[in-house]
Design goal:
Layout lengths: L9 H8 L4 E6 L4 H9 L4 E5 L7 H13 L4 E4 L6 H6 L4 E4 L5 H11 L23 H7 L5 E6 L2 H5 L1 H5 L6 E4 L1 H8 L7 H13 L4 E5 L2 H10 L3 E5 H13 L17 E6 L10 H6 L4 E4 L9 H11 L4 E6 L1 H12 L4 E7 L8 H15 L3 H11 L8 H27 L15 E6 L7 H10 L4 E5 L5 H4 L1 H12 L2
Parallel strand pairs: 1-2, 1-8, 2-3, 3-4, 4-5, 5-6, 6-7, 7-8, 9-10, 9-11, 11-12, 12-13, 13-14
Length: about 500
C-alpha cells in the first residue's frame, strides 16, 4: 500500500475547479528559502518560473520537494510544450503556458497535459508523480483522470480578443494575463498602463472570473480579489525588491527622485489625492522634466492627515517643493505646518483648507460602509466618473481615473476616508505660509468648488491663483495648463 504524500498536488486542481479563491507566490529558481517561506506563512500554492528562470530538472525536483514539505502544491510556468512531460513527471500540480493566442493553441496545451485517450502525454508510472512505481499503472492513470491544472497565459491583443473562446476550451482551468508582455504588444511598456488594466478587466469578464492575476503587494492582491479574480499570485522577486527599496528609505533624506534626473533640478514631491496614484501627475511631471526632479510618494498608509504628513517628512530631503492634489494638497499644507523650514514651495491643486462638512462626512460614511461590504470595485468606478465634470467624462479619462484606484485598493481607501473625516481646518495656519505658493483650481470642479480655492489663495500671503478649464482632476484633465502654472511657480 502506498503512503499518500503530505501534499497531494491534484488537490490544487480540485480546489480551483470548485471555485476556491487562492493566494500564492511565484519564484524564480534557485530560491529554496523563498519556497520554504511561502509555505511557512501559509500561502496556498507556489509557482516556479521556468520560463524566465533556470529550468534545470534536478533543481526543479528539489524545489518541488521543498515546497511539498511545507504544504505547498507547485505549478510550473514553462516556455515550451516539450517541457510539459518532464515537469508533470516530477509531480507538479499544474502548468502555466505562455502566449496562448488562439483556441487551437489552447487545445494543443490541454492535449500535452493529459494522458490518452484525452491527450497525448507520454505515460510512465515509475516517475515521482507515480510514487516511483509504487502505484500500478492503472492506479496512476485513475489518479490523473481529471488531469493537472492547466493555465493559459493571455499576452497579446489577439489573445485578449479571443479570451472567451480560449476560456471555453475543455481543460483550460484559468486564464493568466501577462501584464508585461501585453504592455509590450500594445506598445505601452514604458507608458500609461490603462490599456493593460482594461484588458485584465475584459479577460476577467470573458473567463467568468476564472483568472489568475499577478501582483507585488497585498493591497493590489486584495484589489484583484475584489475585482473578481479567483486566484492571485505574488511576484515574490518584485516584493523582495520593493522591500529593499522601502528599507533603504530609512536612511536620511531618501524619498528618491526618478532615476536619471539631473541632480541640480528642483526636487518636487507630487502628492496625489484620494484613490489616486502617480498617474495623476505623470503627464504634468513629464512636461516639467527639464526643471523638476519628481518623486511620487503614496499617502494611503495612515488614517490621519497628520500621520501622513509626518511619514512623508521622515523620508523627504532636507528641503523640497511639494505639489498636492485634493487630499494630497491637504497633506501638503500639513507638511508645511509641521516643517515650514523644509518646504521651499507649495502648490495646491483642487484643494480646500477647510475641515470636513456634514455633507462630506455623510458621503464618506456611505463610501466606507459600501467598501467594507465588498463594493470597492463599484465605488471606484463611480468615483472614476463622478470626480470628472459631466462634460469631460470621455472613456479614456474615466478609465485612467478608475484604474488608479487599483493601486490604492480598499484598505488604503478606507484609511484615506478616515483621514478625510478628521482632517484639520488649515485656515488659521495659512497666514504663516511665506514660501512661493500657487493655488490651481478648475472652473468645473464640483467636488472642491472654485470658491473654496479662492478662499485658500486669499489666506496665503502673495499666493497666486490660477484657474484652468477642468474639473476636480485638473492634473489629469488639463496637464499642459497645470504644468505651465507649475513652471512659473518653480521659477519664482
Amino acid at each position: 500500500m502506498v503512503t499518500p504524500p503530505r501534499v497531494d498536488p491534484l488537490d490544487l486542481a480540485a480546489r480551483v475547479r470548485r471555485g476556491d479563491r487562492l493566494l500564492g507566490g511565484l519564484v524564480r529558481m534557485p530560491a529554496e528559502m523563498l519556497v520554504e517561506l511561502t509555505g511557512l506563512v501559509g500561502l496556498d500554492y507556489l509557482v516556479l518560473d521556468a520560463e524566465h528562470g533556470p529550468g534545470d530538472q534536478v533543481a526543479m525536483a528539489h524545489h518541488i520537494s521543498t515546497a511539498e514539505a511545507v504544504g505547498l502544491p507547485v505549478i510550473v510556468r514553462i516556455g515550451g510544450l516539450h517541457e510539459v512531460l518532464r515537469v508533470l513527471d516530477l509531480g507538479a500540480a499544474g502548468i502555466i503556458y505562455p502566449h496562448i493566442d488562439s483556441v487551437d493553441e489552447a487545445k494543443a496545451l490541454v492535449e500535452a497535459v493529459h494522458y490518452p485517450p484525452r491527450g497525448r502525454r507520454g505515460f510512465a508510472a515509475y516517475t515521482r508523480a507515480g510514487s516511483y512505481g509504487l502505484r500500478t499503472g492503472a492506479e496512476h492513470l485513475h489518479r490523473y483522470a481529471d488531469g493537472p491544472l492547466v493555465i493559459a497565459m493571455i499576452e497579446s491583443e489577439a489573445a485578449v480578443t479571443a479570451a472567451a473562446d480560449i476560456a471555453a476550451v475543455d481543460g483550460i482551468d484559468l486564464l493568466f494575463l501577462g501584464p508585461a508582455d501585453l504592455a509590450a504588444d500594445l506598445g505601452v511598456l514604458a507608458g500609461d498602463q490603462t490599456p493593460v488594466a482594461l484588458a485584465l478587466a475584459q479577460v476577467r469578464e470573458a473567463a467568468g472570473g476564472r483568472v489568475l492575476s499577478i501582483c507585488g503587494d497585498e493591497t493590489t492582491a486584495r484589489a484583484h480579489f475584489d475585482a473578481g479574480s479567483q486566484v492571485v499570485v505574488y511576484n515574490l522577486q518584485h516584493a523582495v525588491s520593493a522591500t529593499f527599496v522601502r528599507l533603504a528609505t530609512a536612511a536620511p533624506n531618501t524619498i528618491h527622485a526618478e532615476s536619471g534626473a539631473p541632480a541640480d533640478l528642483q526636487h518636487v514631491l507630487f502628492l496625489s489625492g484620494m484613490l489616486g496614484d502617480r498617474s495623476t501627475w505623470q503627464d504634468v511631471a513629464a512636461d516639467l522634466a527639464d526643471v523638476a526632479q519628481p518623486s511620487f510618494p503614496r499617502i494611503d498608509g495612515h488614517d490621519t492627515v497628520e500621520a501622513m504628513a509626518a511619514a512623508l517628512l521622515a523620508q523627504a530631503p532636507a528641503h523640497f517643493a511639494v505639489a498636492g492634489h485634493s487630499l494630497g494638497g491637504i497633506v501638503a499644507l500639513e507638511m508645511a505646518r509641521q516643517a515650514p523650514e523644509r518646504v521651499t514651495r507649495l502648490a495646491l491643486v483642487n484643494t480646500s483648507a477647510r475641515d470636513a462638512s456634514p455633507e462630506q462626512l455623510q458621503s464618506w460614511a456611505e463610501l466606507t460602509a459600501r467598501t467594507r461590504s465588498g463594493e470597492f470595485v463599484d465605488v471606484a468606478a463611480q468615483l472614476g466618473r463622478d470626480t470628472l465634470p459631466e462634460g469631460g467624462r470621455d472613456a479614456n479619462l474615466v478609465a485612467r481615473n478608475t484604474a488608479m484606484a487599483t493601486t490604492v485598493g480598499p484598505e488604503g481607501f478606507l484609511r484615506q476616508l478616515a483621514a478625510q473625516a478628521v482632517r484639520p481646518d488649515s485656515r488659521p495656519a495659512l497666514s504663516a505660509i511665506t514660501v512661493p505658493t500657487v493655488v490651481i483650481s478648475g472652473t468645473l470642479d464640483e467636488v472642491c468648488p472654485p470658491a473654496l480655492q479662492e478662499e485658500l489663495a486669499a489666506g496665503i500671503l502673495d499666493a497666486r491663483h490660477v484657474v484652468v478649464t477642468a474639473g476636480h482632476m485638473a492634473p489629469l484633465e488639463a496637464p499642459r495648463e497645470v504644468a505651465s502654472a507649475l513652471r512659473d511657480w518653480l521659477g519664482l
